[in-house]
Design brief:
By secondary structure, the protein is of the alpha+beta class. It is built from two helices and six strands; from the N terminus they run ααββββββ.
Length: about 180
């Protein structure tokens, strides 16, 4: 017999025990991998729940901050209403309401809200909604000539487009024969 025996030259019982041993080792590895995968999956589910809770908490804190700021505006509006009931001075009441409106815009501005500038600007379908085209020769075609309802953006996103009237090039009557003769 040669010194370099191959595996095929070993007795069948030895080969069988080696295969069973290798199979057992692979089964143990498989169990270990499965346990690791289950722990990893549980960790991921816990992470997901924690992130979802953090997002909900942040949304609540943001809402609470906005509402707290708006309550100051509500207080001022209530004072204006009470003052309006007691005074005949309409200008003072209007001045007070305008101040409250400015404060409201400032509060919303802190949250990222801005007005869309429309009048005198070219029509932009991403920011404006046309409700009427007005024939005119005093503005170039497509220019916003009146804002019917203000539009707003939150940061860089339009949350409400401006409702506008835009200029339409006026049709000038040509000097043709009323009978249609040429």
């Amino acid at each position: 017999m040669k010194k370099d025996e191959t595996k095929l030259d070993k007795p069948k019982s030895t080969r069988k025990s080696e295969i069973e041993k290798a199979l057992t080792e692979e089964q143990e590895k498989s169990k270990d991998y499965l346990n690791r995968l289950m722990y990893l999956q549980a960790d991921f589910e816990n992470y997901k729940k924690r992130v979802d809770k953090e997002i909900r908490d942040e949304i609540q804190r943001s809402s609470q901050r906005l509402i707290t700021n708006l309550l100051g505006v509500v207080d001022e509006l209530e004072i204006a209403i009470e003052s309006g009931k007691k005074t005949e001075n309409k200008e003072a009441l209007m001045e007070g309401v305008e101040m409250v409106l400015k404060k409201l815009y400032a509060t919303l501005g802190q949250e990222g809200l801005t007005k869309i500038e429309a009048v005198g600007k070219p029509f932009d379908p991403n920011k404006h909604e046309v409700i009427l085209k007005v024939p005119t020769s005093s503005h170039s075609e497509g220019t916003v000539i009146e804002e019917v309802r203000k539009g707003f953006m939150l940061k860089d996103k339009v949350i409400r487009p401006s409702m506008v009237k835009i200029a339409l090039a006026s049709v000038t009557p040509n000097n043709s024969n009323p009978k249609g003769d040429r």
